[in-house]
Amino acid sequence: MRRYETLFIITPDSSDDELKTIFEKFQNVVTTRKGQILSYEEQGKKKLAYEIKKHGKGHYVQMDYLGPADIVAEVERNLRLDERILAYITVKLADSVDPESVKAEAVEPRRLAKAEESGEEAPAAAAEKAGREEETD
């Protein structure tokens, strides 16, 4: 399987229900093509560098997924057909990826983020700090 990242911009007047509908639509496209969505991150409404289809702002969405080579063509076809999508770009991140190792990578950043939110030190930083304390003794 290959790993891809697609960034697309949705019209700024889209409601939360429409954003959810768009997510479900692309989740369905990826899963029917035997792919897996690793992450779907809504980055919020931002100002565009220039107007696209007479819009000065847009909802930015980043989708990271795994799938066979033909999955990009289908995702981009659906992006072109949806009138709510202003622009998109897809980047291939890796040629051959093991889905299990990618899932393990995705769990590690979440665990680190939770540790930072709760005020705890990240496991690697705590181990490094403990190692330095032993050296000074």
What does this 3D model show about the protein?
The chain has 137 residues and is α+β, with helices and mostly antiparallel strands. The chain starts with a strand and ends with a helix. It has a 4-stranded antiparallel sheet with strand order 2-3-1-4. It has a domain at 2-96: Alpha-Beta Plaits (2-Layer Sandwich). The model has no long low-confidence stretch (mean pLDDT 82). The chain is 45% helix and 36% strand.
Beta-strand segment tally: 4
Low-confidence stretches: none
Annotation field: number of helices: 4
Beta-strand content: 35-45%
User: For the residues shown, what is the average pLDDT?
Assistant: 82
CATH H-level superfamily of the domain at 2-96: Ribosomal protein S6/Translation elongation factor EF1B
CATH architecture label name of the domain at 2-96: 2-Layer Sandwich
> Rounded to an integer, what's the Rg over CA atoms?
19 Å
Give the helices and strands as they follow along the chain: EHEEHEHH
- Please give the largest β-sheet: 4 strands, antiparallel
Lateral strand order in the biggest sheet: 2-3-1-4
Q: What's the CATH topology label of the domain at 2-96?
A: Alpha-Beta Plaits
- The helix content, as a percent range, equals 40-55%
